[in-house]
């Protein structure tokens, strides 16, 4: 292990430990102590480059300069870029560019002040720089502040046309610099993974590859679930307004300081940003212009993505639509983790995703598409960890051997948020947990670790009430025991006709013979008139032989949505469940260990729910 890679491992382990314990507000929180001991703090300009020896916030082996250029929408918005070039470049030498664009590159800190003693380029992706030995391999790294953040002017525009114009301008600018070969790759996680997907959607010739870890595939589902507000409906706006108004460092240059204080003289920017999040109608132009999955239709930029199926923050919603619409080369790591990076480690040193080689594979991906270097290692197109913690290789995702539409029948429930269920069950179920709402700030990098757990005994008690003929807050439908292992993959969908107004929560459970059941997929929606269909989250869950698939339909009783129960009795008719099924017996194994978060998820979402009367078969005919 090279010294720099060893440093990256240690920093990544500490970062992940803090993130999982909630003690971290930004991935670079472990580094300010180093900066505070710095002896020099030269500040770069476009023509006065600065090295690590002159400012210890500059990564070793690189030279830092700062630049300003206009966005592409003729709005007058000026964008700021921190550029890191390999140290020792010869006159006239050109290198390909790795570009990251987002709100987290401010000199003061990513999501809040990080305690730096002097200014310098953000350390947000120091792990990537060190893990790949990026500068030794002949790449430039460019960090661009989206409008309204860091050293850029303009009103923030969360994933909207303004930010899309910024991404376009940044790609063009990076490709046209005299030190650039014209080949640009994008890199990011969370928000700056979203801008990578935007870059793909723009379909620019200069963009040769995108690496996007844990992105949003469509902006709407992050704020609303089919019309039902999520808990961050106000917190996300507050978070980004707070980041946008973060003060610059005292020794930032005058140009940067003036741009960083843009919102002080343009307070309407914060008001307008908050207003957009209040629009609940998915068909509104505000959200249509942010439907990244739909905008991906026909795009072909080589794409390397990661996604945790049980991710609690940037969830796998509209993921399948995006990948189906994308027609270019793809690479992916998909599995049972939370909001982490490919190289992150947990406190005991285990990889958070469970798979070795993130930095080597990422560098190989860029080498292939930015330098036309044939990979020395054959990597699987998709490496996927299913719910058993087992990894397999696939040529694409999803792969399904059979698609089935299963009859769930009729039922009824009271849309009361669980009140009737708890009243009927009385002392046989624990009190509903107090739903801890976000403290007012919820950005894509930081979110509550888990939703509140379901009250103990709730699911089992509801099933008993249903068996006794009572109508309460939800009802269940059970399958016959499965005769052979079967994987539920892709995006499950439930269709139904509902009489009444209110909300519906849909859940899938993996029920073991002993009655323990894991809730492995869920979604909520406002009820609509006529026939309605609701996509659940994308999943990759293996049901073992002898297990039962249970479906719950009812009021929103768990999680942390900000729903308003109607109190009405909802009659459900003709419910069906559409599933994509795969046979795990023909999996092709690929190296990887069980991701640590899988066991956390199983503890959080396992309930008591003995199987009830079976009304459908998961694999009709008993085959795939």
From TrEMBL:
InterPro entries: AB_hydrolase_fold, CocE/Ser_esterase, Galactose-bd-like_sf, Xaa-Pro-like_dom, Xaa-Pro_dipept_C. This is CocE/NonD family hydrolase. Gene3D superfamilies: alpha/beta hydrolase. Residues 363-590 form the Xaa-Pro dipeptidyl-peptidase C-terminal domain. One of its GO terms (molecular function) is hydrolase activity. Residues 423-456 are annotated as: Disordered. It comes from Streptomyces carpinensis. Pfam families: Peptidase_S15, PepX_C. Keywords: Hydrolase, Signal. Coiled coil: none annotated. Residues 1-30 form the signal peptide. The lineage of its organism: Bacteria, Bacillati, Actinomycetota, Actinomycetes, Kitasatosporales. It comes from the Bacteria.
């Amino acid at each position: 292990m090279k010294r720099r890679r060893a440093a990256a491992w240690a920093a990544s382990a500490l970062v992940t430990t803090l993130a999982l314990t909630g003690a971290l507000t930004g991935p670079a929180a472990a580094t300010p102590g180093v900066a505070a001991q710095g002896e020099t703090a030269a500040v770069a300009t476009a023509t006065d480059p600065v090295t690590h020896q002159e400012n210890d916030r500059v990564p070793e082996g690189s030279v830092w300069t700062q630049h300003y250029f206009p966005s592409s929408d003729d709005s007058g918005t000026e964008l700021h870029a921190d550029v890191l070039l390999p140290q020792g470049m010869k006159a006239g030498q050109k290198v390909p560019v790795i570009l990251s664009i987002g709100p987290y590159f401010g000199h003061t800190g990513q999501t809040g002040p990080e305690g730096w003693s002097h200014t310098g380029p953000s350390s947000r992706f120091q792990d990537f720089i060190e893990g790949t030995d990026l500068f030794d391999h002949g790449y430039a790294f460019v960090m661009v502040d989206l409008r309204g953040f860091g050293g850029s002017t303009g009103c923030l525009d969360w994933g909207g046309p303004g930010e899309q114009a910024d991404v376009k301008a940044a790609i063009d600018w990076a490709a046209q610099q005299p030190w650039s070969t014209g080949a640009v790759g994008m890199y990011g996680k969370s928000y700056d993974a979203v801008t990578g997907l935007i870059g793909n959607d723009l379909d620019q010739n200069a963009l040769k590859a995108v690496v996007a870890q844990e992105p949003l595939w469509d902006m709407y589902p992050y704020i609303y679930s089919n019309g039902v507000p999520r808990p961050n409906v106000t917190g996300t706006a507050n978070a980004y307004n707070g980041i946008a108004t973060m003060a610059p460092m005292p020794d930032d240059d005058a140009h940067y300081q003036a741009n960083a204080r843009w919102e002080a003289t343009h307070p309407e920017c914060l008001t307008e940003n908050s207003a957009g999040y209040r629009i609940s109608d998915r068909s509104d132009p505000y959200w249509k212009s942010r439907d990244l999955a739909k905008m991906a239709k026909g795009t072909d930029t080589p794409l390397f993505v990661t996604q945790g199926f049980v991710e609690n923050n940037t969830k796998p919603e509209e993921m399948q639509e995006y990948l189906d619409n994308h027609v270019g080369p793809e690479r992916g790591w998909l599995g049972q983790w939370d909001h982490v990076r490919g190289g992150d480690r947990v406190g005991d040193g285990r990889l958070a995703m469970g798979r070795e080689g993130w930095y080597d594979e990422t560098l190989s991906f860029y080498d292939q598409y930015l330098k036309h270097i044939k990979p020395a290692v054959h990597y699987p197109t998709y490496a996927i960890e299913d719910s058993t913690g087992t990894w397999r290789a696939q040529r694409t995702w999803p792969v399904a051997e059979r698609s089935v539409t299963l009859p769930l029948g009729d039922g009824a429930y009271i849309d009361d948020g669980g009140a009737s269920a708890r009243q009927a069950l009385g002392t046989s179920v624990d009190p509903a947990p107090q739903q801890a709402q976000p403290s007012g700030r919820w950005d894509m990098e930081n979110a509550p670790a888990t939703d509140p757990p379901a009250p103990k005994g709730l699911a089992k008690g509801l099933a008993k009430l249903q068996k006794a003929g009572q109508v309460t807050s939800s009802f269940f439908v059970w399958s016959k025991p499965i005769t052979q292992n079967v994987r539920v993959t892709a995006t499950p969908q439930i269709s139904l006709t509902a009489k009444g107004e209110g909300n519906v929560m849909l859940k899938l459970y993996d029920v073991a013979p002993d009655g323990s059941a894991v809730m492995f997929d869920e979604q909520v929606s406002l009820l609509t008139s006529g026939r309605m269909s609701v996509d659940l989250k994308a999943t990759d869950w293996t049901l073992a032989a002898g297990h039962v698939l249970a479906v719950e339909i009812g009021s929103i009783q768990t999680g942390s949505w900000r729903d308003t129960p109607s109190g009405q009795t909802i009659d459900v008719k003709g419910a069906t469940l559409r599933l994509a099924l795969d046979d795990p017996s023909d999996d092709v194994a690929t190296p990887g260990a069980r991701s640590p978060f899988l066991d956390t998820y199983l503890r959080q979402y396992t309930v008591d729910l003995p199987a009830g009367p079976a009304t459908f078969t998961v694999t009709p005919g008993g085959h795939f």
